[in-house]
Design brief:
- Belongs to the DeoC/FbaB aldolase family. FbaB subfamily.
- By secondary structure, the protein is of the alpha/beta class.
- It has one domain (about 5-345): TIM Barrel, CATH 3.20.20.
- It is built from 16 helices and 10 strands.
- It has helices at about 5-10, 15-20, 35-40, 50-60, 75-80, 85, 95-105, 115-125, 155-160, 175-195, 220-230, 250, 270-280, 300-315, 325, 330-345; strands at about 70-75, 110-115, 130-135, 135, 150, 165-170, 195-205, 235-240, 285-290, 320.
- The strands form 2 sheets. It has an 8-stranded parallel barrel, surrounded by 7 helices. A two-stranded antiparallel sheet has the order 4-5.
- α11 packs parallel to α13 (about 270-280), α13 crosses α14 (about 300-315) and α14 runs parallel beside α16.
């Protein structure tokens, strides 16, 4: 039986989420995280020895070291959501050193943040926790607000900061997505040449994806295809939002779909919807880490543990959780990160 505190946190959803058995695609087809994940999946690939070493650095740090699962603290919201909006709940995080301290105290595998944040503290902390540099951003000072990601620095500079990986976002479906795909693909190729791992924030952005009845930005079919595009440009790890619905292609009448996508490949259960995302990451060969989402206050703990259970039981690789951790007192943020990590450490919580 899973740890009692996890059951208590999940409340009425505990039975369903912890005991659900998927009847769609067999879990035996998945490349699931584990201590030997690098040897099973990446050793036969084209990834160089330095890239595999960088991936090993990520996988062998923090409380989840050696498990094949990842817990990453991402703090790029100062650009993506404005610094004032992001850090007003806890102003200590205007200082980038506290971001790194939270990741260390929280037992994370890595901290993912901006060039500027890491540059200020690189000499003090690059050897204490793996760095992931987020190399592009959507700044919010252009009016009207646009959906575009632009480069804020070079892959070479990320390496000079001591980073073991670079992260980037593509807004699939946006007007500028083709340019972003080209830019990020070139950046990831360079990162691999320099021996760094690559993580793609695989997001969707298009006003047409949101109707009066449903927001299909988080549909399993649309986000799953975004994941498939992401692994095609050789992202080692995919970051994606947790799916909340399905049938975006069908409802919006675009792209291509067939009925089996919404029955044979995925039911309406949240674990099956997330598994469809994993399937589109080459059946888990590229790990899926789901994002925690915005802070909602009192429900943050329950929602974070819920997301972790769904991700793990679907075949995912972990969680990348930021705002729910840093928009509260540091010790509470540490405790939240630890509880999420406990899901991945609990051997009684297995694949559905």
């Amino acid at each position: 039986m899973p740890q009692q505190n996890i059951i208590d946190i999940l409340k009425d959803e505990a039975e369903d989420l912890l005991h659900f058995s998927s009847a769609t695609v067999s879990k035996d087809l998945l490349h699931v995280p584990g201590p030997d994940f690098l040897e099973r999946v990446f050793l036969p690939s084209n990834r160089s020895i330095p890239v595999i070493r960088s991936l090993a650095t990520l996988f062998n740090h923090g409380r989840l070291a050696g498990t094949g699962y990842l817990s990453i603290l991402p703090v790029d919201q100062g650009i993506e959501h404005t610094a004032g909006f992001s850090f007003a709940p806890n102003p200590i995080y205007f200082d980038p050193e506290n971001i790194v301290k939270l990741a260390i105290e929280g037992g994370c595998n890595a901290v993912a943040t901006t060039f500027g944040n890491l540059a200020m503290v690189a000499r003090k902390y690059a050897h204490r926790i793996p760095f992931v540099v987020k190399i592009n951003h959507n700044e919010l000072l252009t009016y009207p607000t646009k959906h575009d990601q632009v480069m804020f620095g070079s892959v070479e500079e990320a390496r000079n900061l001591g980073a073991v990986a670079v992260g980037a976002t593509i807004y699939f479906g946006s007007e500028q997505s083709n340019r972003q795909i080209i830019e990020v693909a070139e950046a990831f190729e360079k990162a691999h040449e320099l021996g760094m791992a690559t993580i793609l924030w695989c997001y969707t952005r298009n006003e047409a994806f949101k109707t009066k009845d449903q927001d299909y930005h988080v549909a399993a079919d649309i986000t799953g295809q975004a994941n498939h595009l992401g692994v095609t440009i050789q992202a080692d790890i995919i970051k994606q939002k947790m799916p909340e619905n399905n049938g975006g292609f069908k409802a919006l009448n675009f792209s291509k779909w067939r009925p089996d996508m919404y029955g044979k490949l995925a039911s309406s259960h949240p674990i099956d919807l997330c598994r469809y995302q994993v399937m589109n990451c080459y059946m888990g060969r590229a790990g899926l880490i789901n994002s925690g989402g915005e802070s909602q206050g009192e429900t943050d703990l329950q929602q974070s543990v819920r997301t972790a259970v769904i991700n793990k039981r679907a075949g995912g690789m972990g969680l990348i959780l930021g705002r729910r951790a840093f928009q509260r007192p540091m010790q509470e943020g540490v405790e939240l990160l630890h509880l999420v990590q406990d899901v991945y450490l609990d051997e009684q919580i297995g694949l559905a």
